[in-house]
Each structure stands twice: as C-alpha cells, then as structure tokens.
UniProtKB/TrEMBL annotation:
GO terms for cellular component: apical part of cell; cytoplasm; endomembrane system; plasma membrane. This is Maltase. It comes from Takifugu flavidus (sansaifugu). Keywords: Disulfide bond, Glycoprotein, Glycosidase, Hydrolase, Membrane, Repeat, Signal-anchor, Sulfation, Transmembrane, Transmembrane helix. It is a single-pass membrane protein. Belongs to the glycosyl hydrolase 31 family. It comes from the Eukaryota. It holds the Pfam family Glyco_hydro_31_2nd. InterPro entries: Gal_mutarotase_sf_dom, GH, Glyco_hydro_31_AS, Glyco_hydro_31_C, Glyco_hydro_31_N_dom, Glyco_hydro_31_TIM, Glyco_hydro_b, P_trefoil_dom. The keyword rRNA processing does not apply. One of its GO terms (molecular function) is alpha-1,4-glucosidase activity. It is found in: Membrane.
Amino acid sequence: MVVVVEMMMMMMIMMKSLNYDFQPQDPAFYGPNSPLVASSKYYLRIRYTLLPYLYTLFYKAHTTGDTVVRPVMHEFYSDSNTWSTDRQFLWGKHLLITPVLDPGVDTVKAYIPDAVWYNYETMEQLAERRMHVTMHLPADKLGLHVRGGAILPTQEPDVTTTHSRRNPMGLLVALDDNKQAAGELFWDDGDSRETVETGKHIHYLFSVSSGELKMQVTRAGYKDPNNLTFENITILGVSYPPNSSAVSLISGEGSPTTSLPHTMQYDAEKKILFLQGLSLTLGESYLVKWDQGLEDYQRFDCHPEDNGDETKCKSRGCIWKPSSIEKAPWCFYPDDYGYSVTAFNETSSGMTADIVRNKKYRSSGRPNSPDIDTLRVSIQYHTSHMLQFKIVDPATDRYEVPVPLSLPKTSETDESKRLYKVAITQTPFGIKVTRKSTGIAIWDSSVPGFTFSEMFIQVSTRLPSHFIYGFGETEHPTYKHDLNYHTWGMFTKDQPPGYKTNSYGMHPFYMGLEKTADAHGVLLLNSNAMDVTLQPTPALTYRTVGGILDFYMVLGPTPEMVVQEYTQLIGRPVLPAYWTLGFQLCRYGYANDSEIEDLYNSMRAAGIPYDVQYADIDYMDRQLNFVLDSEFSKLPALVERIQDEGGRFIIILDPAISGNETVPYPAFDRGVADDVFIKWPKNLSDEIVWGKVWPDYPNVTVNDSLDWDTQIELYRSYTAFPDFLRPATAKWWFQEIKDFYDKIMKFDGLWIDMNEPVTFVSGTVGKKCLGDPLFENPPYMPALESRYLGLNHKTLCMNSEQILSDGKKVRHYDVHSLYGWSQTQPTYDAMLNVTGKRGIVVTRSTFPSSGKWAGHWLGDNTAGWDQLYKSIIGMMEFSLFGISYTGADICGFFNDAEYEMCLRWMHLGAFYPYSRNHNGKGFRRQDPVAWDAQFANYSRDVLNIRYSLLPYLYTLMFEAHTKGSTVIRPMLHEFVQDTNTWNIHKQFLWGPAMLITPALDKGVVNVEGYIPDARWYDFHTTREIGVRRQNLIMPTPLHHINLHVRGGYILPWQKPENTTHFSRKNPLGLIVALSDNGTAQGSLFWDDGEGVDNVERGRYLLTSFTAESNMLSSQVLVNGLHVTDQPFLGVLKLWGVGTTKIISASLISDNREWTLTPEHNMDTQELIIDATSLSASMSQPFSVTWRI
C-alpha cells in the first residue's frame, strides 16, 4: 500500500496513469478512507492550484523554447552538485519537486540549490541552501519547495479544469535575498488554437521590489466569461510586520487610483503576509504596496533607561508612540535630532568638519551631563584598507585612551587605491562609508540620536547586514549576534561568564559581513563604561559615559584579512614558548606542596602528556604576593625537579598588595617609597585608596564557616593597588618579581589574575568614596552587571587618581578598563628579563593590544555542558580581538565535574591553544588521573594527538605573530562564500587545514557537523570522506573526537612524548593531504622554542612545502637556527594518492639521493615514506618523489 501511495504521488505530478492487465491502481480502488485517496486528493488539489503556473510554463515552452520539467542543473549549472542530481526536478525555474522513489523509505537525501527556498506546504523558509539534506517524507508526503524570487499564479482548485477555471485566482509571492520576485501569467480560453499568434489572450508580468508588487498587463486580448478576479495574494519572506498596505488600480495613464478594499494579516512566526478579500479583475493592471514594517524598525531609542514613559520621553524632545513589535522602542528620536555641519574641508588625506547641535530640541535629558553644542570631526585615510574618524570637543581637553596604535606615518592620498569612499551627511550629521567595489554602505551614522554630552555620548549606525560578530568580553550564546534588540555592556569586572553580564575584559570591536561576503571591522577606541545595542534595522548604537569617539575601520575584504589588518593596528599576538602549547594542570585549593608532587608523580606514572604545573594563591603565605607559605616550603625543590625532567612551572600573581603587615614587607614598603599605589586626588586626600582582596591580616586564624562578607571584614587586610600606568610602577614590579625568582623559586611563566581590578569591598574600605558621587553613579548607567550598585561595585572608587606616562592625571572612571592591560606589559617584560626566556604571561583582564604580551583564559566558568560550546565562541571572539593564546578551564572551575562531561571536555580542550585543566577550591579533583583507568587512557590518547600536531600549531602561532592570522579560526574565515558557515559556532578550525567537530552534549554518540566545500580526510583513518558542502552525521563514541584534514594542505607533525622537551627531539614528519588535483602546500616554523626575540633576530627556520606531480619539495625561506636546534626529516604521510600501486620513492637533499621504500595502502589511499634513518636536515631544501 505504501509503495502504491508513493507511486501515485509521483504520477500526480506527471499526470498520466496507464494500466493494462494489472491490478487496478486508480485511487478509488483502495477505498474512500484509504491513505491513498486522502493523499491523492491533497496533492491533486495542489496540482490544480498551480495549473495557471504550469499553463504559463507551456506558453513559455511554445514561445521561447523554455523547458517545463527542468533538470536542477539547468538553473544552477555553476554548482557541480547539480550535475548529477537526477532524483529531483523543477517545474520551470521555481518549483522544486523531490519525490520518494524507493520502496520502504520515509527519508530522502535531497539537494537544496543555492537560493532562498520555501516549503510549499508549510510556507516556512528553509535554513539550508547549497547543501544536501535529509527530508522526512512518509508515504503520504512529497517534497515541494518554492524558490525565492518566484511569483506563481494560482487558482482555487476543483474536480475538473472546467470547474476550476471558473474559480478565483491568486498569487503566491516568494521573496528572495533582496526581497524581490518576478513571474508571469498566460491566460486564454484554454481550448482555441493559435491564441498566441492571434493575440486572443491575457499576459501579465509580475514583479516585486521594495515592498511593491506590480501586476502589469502586457496583453489584454481576451475577456474571460467567468469574470475572474485575483482574490488572495500570499507573500512569503516578509521579515517584519507591515503597518499598512494599499492596493490600487493602475489607470490607462499609468497612475494608481485610490486604495481598494482588502484585509491584511501577518504571520510573525513564519514571516508571511496575507492580503485577502481582494477583487482584482483579471486583465487589469494593479499596484500592491506594503510598508515592509520598517517604520518601527527605523526607530532609535531615546530612553534606553528603565521605566520610560511619555512624559520622560517628550521632556527629551523625542516622540512617544507605542509599537506592536516586541522590544521596539516606544520613545524614539525625531528625524532631525542630532547635529548639523557648519564648516567642511576635504583634502586628499581626509576630511574635517565642524558640527553644531540642533537646539530645536531640548537637552539629551540627563541634567547632570550638559550637552556639548559644538564638535570637531576629523576623518583620516590611513591606508587603502583603513580609515579613522574622530569626534572631539574642540574647547576642552577630554580624556583620550592612552593605548598606542601602529598608524602609518603618511596617509593614503591616492583615491584610486582606497577600498572605501567617505561622505558626510549635513543634517542630521553622519558619516557614510561605502565599499567602492560593491557600492554597499558598511557604516552610515546619518540617523537621528547622535548625542555628545559631558558624561553621555551616543552614536548609531546602520549596518549592511544582520551578520555581526565580536564585542566583549561577555558570554554570548551564539557567535553571530542576534540583532533583535539586544544590549551588551562593556566594563571590566570580576564577573564569571554569564548571559548579559560584562566580564573580565573590554573589547569594543566587531566584524561585520556584507551580503556580498565581504567583511569589515570597526574599533571604537574608548575605555569608559559603555554598552552597545543591536537592533533589527539592522543597526547598532554605542553609548559611553566619557572620553571621545575615536573609530577605526578596516575593510578586509575577507574575514581573515580583517583580523590581520586589525592586529596590524593594535599589535600582533605574542609568540608563546613552545612548551606553553603542552597540556597544563592547575587547581585552586592545593593544601601543600605534597599534593602537587603526588599529582605530578601520578601523571608521569600514567604516561599522560603534561608540560606545565601551576600554583594558585595557595602557595602564598596568607595570599601575599612574593611570600612563600610554610606548607609549600618544598615547592622550590619540586619545581626544580619538574624542570630537570622537562616540565615547567607557572605561578599566579595578583595586583593587590597587603598594607597591614607587622614585619617588613618589601613589596609594600618599596611600593610606598616609590609612590606606585593608587591614591585619592590631593585635593581630596593624600591617602592610598584601600581595598580588600585575598591577603589576610597577620596573626589571625580564618574561620571558613563564617559568611563571605564577615570573613572579608574580620580577616582580609587592607590592600593597595599599583598604578601600572606610571613608568615607576613597572620598575618596582620588575624588582619584586626578580627578587622572588632569584631568592625563592625559579618559575617559567606568570599568571596575573584579579586585575580588572577587583576589591571585595566596593569602592574602598568603609565603602565611602570621596569626591563627586556622579562618577560612581553617572547620569547614564550602561547595561552592566549590578549596575544599580554603581560603577565601583567590586572595584575601586571611580574618583581614584591614576597618572599616565606623560604625567597627566586621570580618574579611575576613565581608565578602569585599562588596568589589566596596563599590568600586562610590565609583567611580560619582567618575565623576559628575569628568566631570560620567552615563557608566557596569561592575564584575566584584557583590552585591545593586550595580545601583544599575553594569552587569556576565559575565566571562572562552571562545570556545565553549555560551557563546552560557549568556550568555542569565546575563543573565536578572542581570535577577532587579536589574542591567539586562549582557552577555557577544562572541565570547569566552579562545581563538581561529571565524568562524561569532563572526558568530552578533555577531548575539546586538547584543541584549545591554551590547554589547561583547572578547578576551584572545595570541588572534587578533575585532573586526568583523578577518575579511572579509562579516563586516563582516553585523555592520554587525545593528548598524544595534540602533541603530534604541535609543530603545526606552533607554526600557526608564528603566523599569528607575524601576519596577524587567526589560530582558532571560524569556518566562515575559510569559506566565506558559503553562507552556511556564517552561523556555525560548534565547530572550528586550527588555521586553514584542521577541522574539529567535538561532542558537546550529554549522552550523544553521533555528532552532526557541516563539511565545507573542499576535499577532507578523516584524521583517524586517513581516508577521504567523500562529502562536501553538506551536513554529516559522525559517529562519536566516548573516546573519540572528530578531526578532519583539508585537502591541499601540508601539516608538520612529530611523534609525541610526555613533554615537549622530549617530543621536540624527535624527527619532524609531514602530513600531505592532497587536493582534488593532487597538490598541497604548507610551511614549518621552528626555533629553539623559548628564545627571546628569535623572530626579530632571525634565529629560526622557516620552510615552505609544495606537493604536485608526485613530488614533495621544500624551500628554505629563513635559516637562522643554531645547528643544535635543527630538525631532521621523519615520516611522510601522503593522503589521497590513489589506488595505482606506488612501488618506489627517492629523496634528494644536500646534493645526495637516497632510495626509499614506500608503504602504499590502496584501501585508504595513504602512502607512507619513512626518511627517519637518513638524518636529513630540514634546514636544507629537499625533494621526495614517488613512482608507480
């Protein structure tokens, strides 16, 4: 029966059923209540509904030779996936039909070509395009999809065409990406001959653009006797609910009449507009308009604060009008609210303008923040791909961010070389930046609402698309931002990752994608507390509480180039020491040095790769920097042993220094003598601004059973905060670090924490901030965590004074978010000078350019499944921010980790650049040897994979350091032309060539991932997977993570050992993953792994590799290595070499030739050539040839 239903549905499309001497197969034979009858009636009604469209297709076939039933490749011939698509077909251009053609199945593998598609039956838009999908099509279903851009004429069906031709007609409009559509209708009496030739027919051309449907009659040579009318028009893909619609008859003069009666309904969930109750005469021309619902979406919020009402709104000179759109502002700016240009000058290198506030309206509505009426605008064309626009108060020396940027000495004055065009709008003032190659405006701030007052600055801009990435640091649920009126605050804070909570760093940078797949980036260099609102216009609004507006825009045009150009501006990411890429362990809550020693011994006994051990604040006596606790008296000896055995050790340092010591404490005493601590302004007090953090009072016994606030009050000592903006502080900090290294313990790297900065008493001890309280609670409070408690919540008073390197005094209010940034370079410089090696600094608080000196971990996360995929988003965002060395605390910092989650996290974390398992005090251990033998074995296996690929990862770090390339790379950076990649955040790449698809959910044994358009090999099996540009279900048992290597790339690898100290001694091999045409390329960076300024001094090896025509060759680009550090060639693994037996191979290097014996697996198509025994130096060019 099922088979018969499927066959009948197919015949309904073809509409001819022949039967000779076989069992009856007409639908009625199976009974009136049979599924076959029901399904037949349903799909025949669809067919009859679409007969006007089908009849028009036959008219087109008759007049122009167009096909009716059309192979998919006829419409999408540039897509090679369609060339073999023979189980789907089209009616004309616009109706895709996917039948079930095999017995006993209810799913069909189908291809969705590159267009907008709508399910005909549900009218919902498909998310997929240009990819294979699995359609669920039970026996009574057929795949029917309407292509975006189509206008299909329809008619209410009946039992015969004679009857249906008497029924009302309609239009089904399916909008494309540009919200456009087109179609036509041919209509005659349906029987007479030569109606085309004689002109006895009606012909319409339909078109939709900008919310207008034109129903244009091009021939009216026939009068239908049934007085047919169009009664219903259904429009798919209407993004926003229209406020109104109008239907007009176009007169003979071409002008529309007054609106005709009809009703309008909008399905917000499916984005469908229904126009019903029409009575549009067949043979007449009409114009149908809807306002696209844009009015409400063009509003810019005039009252972003809570508790807005009409009175408050109008007091700001704004418009109050309720909206039916959820989250749309009811209080919004009038069109001319803002500034106007009074003077303008343009040169070959930029523009300047003076602008004046439109005083027609009242002030911005914040009485304690007076408006600044006159502003100066300057626009600088720095390079062909970068420009700057800056808005200042010419009458006042306002605070500007003291972060140095790398700007060219001269501007790009040749207009023909610039990728952009800039225009200034007079009223309301705005700046419009257009990409010259496409004409797309990527920034347009000529919208109402621009405000520049003493303590509140606001500027909005339209965006070219809804695809926006970046802004941090905060936990985002997706990599691509949701533009449905979401506001994100930015102000550094001791705040664990959480939704809509500003966290440790501040990065007012975003990358935008344009519909053409071009990319751009925008930095607002402003360190004051701020927020950004993203709205569906699409547009965004910045609001900040101080400083100036200083924007930098880079034009890409690829996403990867955006990051390269951005890091060229702010500084390239630091090159970490090689050992920092090894696996690392840490825990807050080690009771003594014996616990660390036991863990170290257990890890070594288990044979799990492991390079770095940490000590959290437990090693400090009463949590005092630079003082060793008696319970850790043997730690220096243990560290020395770890280092002797090839491992490394990192210690934590917090910025806060205890000021209540009863015995000399050099860190505090010398700090006071050098005047390095943050104080009040002298007009308020000459005292240190005291806080409380981790250090305890001397000679107290802490009662941990007391509540947190009581413990802080009774036990925590007063602490002083170094002002790292002062040059003197860097010298003091260096001396304290040096003394600890020389006299107490020889660490290898430094971890700086709590540098937002954090104090456990908000503001200061006693919570009484001196000075103007307006700076603690400004007139506008951005959307920050605990904003109602003031800006000083969990940090210092905003009136605290800091001093810049040029001697200028500034409030903490302005530079708060620079604290961690200002500590990072002095810490990095101290580490280099004290250890004499490169090491690593890991910092919690960051700002643009922090990546020049440090890596970053994503903070005090929780042991929860959601944190796995959110860590991928966090790493991808920090790739945008120019910080390559990133990772999350594996298995979570807070709460007890669960076995399966922690094991999955170990697999994911093995592919963090910064791979550290770390958890908090009071929670159970979660290191790899804390569970069972299976956990240890699985951890060892995946870390062995990591260690084998460290030469590739290290090379990526070098490319980030020298070129600004990303290490953790979103898929869209490599495949931006494939819009399917624009929303992916549960998979990521190492550079261009390694795709990681982890298991991220509890209990899963299969993972669905997207395979981009390239040749891909399974890393574990070395086989080509034979899938591209589609989703793939990947078996993922508990011990497995999905890894795929991209064809066309060469990855250096190395046999793993328990530490990088030993793995670096092994020969270097190459994984050569051949492309479709048998080629591949790659590179290797190699140095001693820890030397300071190796790159700048040329003390390294850089080699490129090329494979083509059965030969692999190398070219030495830089050879500055010491002879003792030169690597030797090991095992070559060539993938995708084919099934023709390869029987010989040879290597030529240093004017010598060796014959090698290849191993060719014709099943997997892997060729292995082992050159280990030859001791061929990779510092010399070589070539390897294989022959059949």
